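Dear colleague,

Thank you for sharing your sequence with our group. We've completed the structure prediction you requested, and as agreed, I am returning the results in plain text so they can be pasted directly into your records. Please verify that the sequence below matches your submission; if there's any discrepancy, let me know and we will rerun it promptly.
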Amino acid sequence: MKFMLIMRATDDAVAAYQEMPFEQVIEAMGRYNESMMKAGVLVAGEGLTDAAEGFVVDFSADKPLITDGPYGETKELFNGFWILEVSSREEAAEWASRAPLGPGSYLEVRRVTGPEDFPADNEWIEKEAGWREEQARRAEQQ
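Please find the predicted structure tokens below.
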């Protein structure tokens, strides 16, 4: 099973992070990432730039509206993520609890859907499976 760990924080947690030496943050995250790589559970993980660099596409109107960041409250922002391949929800929770995050930070943990979650005989599900196979072949050739 794949799970996404979505990193979020309060204003206080963001302020505390900004007070920490950057090398300390990088080292803590590096050690955490390394532990997941060594365990063979880390599929992907990235941090995100400041929300001021982002934008939102709102589909509430007939024509989608694009609004530059920052947007929303800090607690609504998504600061980074990890995707883990683990055997259970409990294992995902165990890895999430080891993240080097402080007070005011939290992880939202969500299962990533897979082919088994959709009808196998759907045209678009079949096409996506083909696209993924093709992508895997290309990656092997590189």
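Summary note from our side: Residues 123-141 form the longest helix (19 residues).

Kind regards,
the structure core
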